[in-house]
Amino acid sequence: NHCIICGFGRVGSQIADDFTEEQKVFIVVDENEQNIQTCLQRGYLALQGDATRDDILREAGIEHARTVLVATDNDAHNISITLSARHLKRELFIVARANRDETKVKLKLAGANRVLSPYTISGHYMANLVYEPAMVELFEAIMQAETGDLVVEEVELAPTAKIIGQTMRDAQNTLLHQGVVLVALKRDGSILSTPTQRLVITRGDSVVVIGKLAQITAFCHKHMGAAQKQVFQEE
Amino acid sequence: NHCIICGFGRVGSQIADDFTEEQKVFIVVDENEQNIQTCLQRGYLALQGDATRDDILREAGIEHARTVLVATDNDAHNISITLSARHLKRELFIVARANRDETKVKLKLAGANRVLSPYTISGHYMANLVYEPAMVELFEAIMQAETGDLVVEEVELAPTAKIIGQTMRDAQNTLLHQGVVLVALKRDGSILSTPTQRLVITRGDSVVVIGKLAQITAFCHKHMGAAQKQVFQEE
Ligand SMILES: [Ca+2]
Ligand SMILES: [Ca+2]
């Protein structure tokens, strides 16, 4: 259940730092000997080799991995690594870095679950610093685990969940009394757009909630689908 | 009260797109003619020229600007633009992009209020997709204004605010009944680290709160410092 980080450049090394702080088990794969030395000095598990190759990914334990993060600064490599990883294991969460816009589609086709561009994210981030600075503060705080016992959770609603059939507005009011803030509604995998206040929550929807750990846990046990509950208990 | 975007590369163009969606007034400054053509095609206000030069920044209206976003892919340019902008106007919010780690300190010294690296942010983002995916969803939703009337606000507490003297835990419980979630506490400009539950809120602190617009507005009017109230009303 470990993570494999492919590429130990500026992005990959930040991922490794964050994983270390969150006590996640991971291994770094990189071709560059200097990068591998840096990993070992920091006490990271590391493997020198070309992550586009099946044997290297196998050596990194891809059969038992849950997640692969493809983070090199070379888009062609990233596409190739993504293809190899997906080919070797169907049940794998792959997050891949796109340095150019046209790479995003290719990474998706190659099998990445999530694709992100350092430049797109930074643009959003810099723009939001201007017109939504508190949101950026919140994001940074939660990214750095500095918010006490406050958590954000995405919950797939059970067919029996009481908020099904309610409007977003009504559900938000109901849940606030239970100490839970309903921040977004997901349907068919994507967040529904504004205006969502009159939108009716239906079977199969997921909700994104934020609140204190105890309240969110209570909410999950009450409203969460059975399949997800099992996942929740496994963790 | 407009924004000046220096550099229309992958980061700068994303900022311009976001500003357009949020109906913010901005002008792009870039040396490259092709980039300026793209701006004009998209209906953006744009000025061809070297943003490290005082006369170009003046032509972009820096005297009346509130914010400058320094977003080129060249660190030396970014330092030089930041220096020029700060030199021309003391009261200015400057957000600058650092492509290499060692540039961060230099941009701060040059006068940037906020410095960010595309690679650091992307690393955080990819890591959080693994262990805090709901937070990333929330951030994306709020960045794209898809959360109905939910807002995040940073509030400088008035000396008379009732939650002063309370622990974070007690304040969170009090505020939840008013439909406001207290997510973080700031003191001397930085977010306080965990465990914050027993921490006592003191005079001069700021809080970051999330909730529905009506509740947050009520909270602000009750707890906000006088100086900030004035700013709030000006906007
Ligand atoms: Ca965290
Ligand atoms: Ca927004």
What is the overall number of helices of chain A? 10
Could you say which small molecules are bound to this protein? calcium ion
List SSEs of chain A in N-to-C order.
EHEHEHEHEHEHHEHEEEHH
Beta percentage of chain A is 15-25%
Widest sheet: strand ordering of chain A? 3-2-1-4-5-6
Note the overall shape of chain A. elongated
Provide structural commentary.
The structure is a homodimer of 235-residue chains. Chain A has ten helices and ten strands. Chain A is elongated. The N and C termini of chain A lie close together (10 Å). The mean pLDDT of chain A is 86. One calcium ion binds next to helix 7 of chain B.
In short:
Two copies of one chain form a homodimer. With 235 residues, chain A is of the alpha/beta class.
Give the tags:
binds calcium ion, four-stranded antiparallel β-sheet, alpha/beta, homodimer, 235 residues, 44% helix, six-stranded parallel β-sheet
Task: Note the topology.
Two copies of one chain form a homodimer.
Chain A: E1 3-6, H1 10-21, E2 26-30, H2 33-41, E3 45-48, H3 54-59, E4 67-70, H4 75-88, E5 93-97, H5 103-110, E6 114-116, H6 118-131, H7 133-143, E7 150-156, H8 168-176, E8 180-187, E9 190-191, E10 206-212, H9 213-223, H10 226-234
Parallel strand pairs in A: 1-2, 1-4, 2-3, 4-5, 5-6
Antiparallel strand pairs in A: 7-10, 8-9, 8-10
Helix pairs in contact in A: 4-5, 6-7
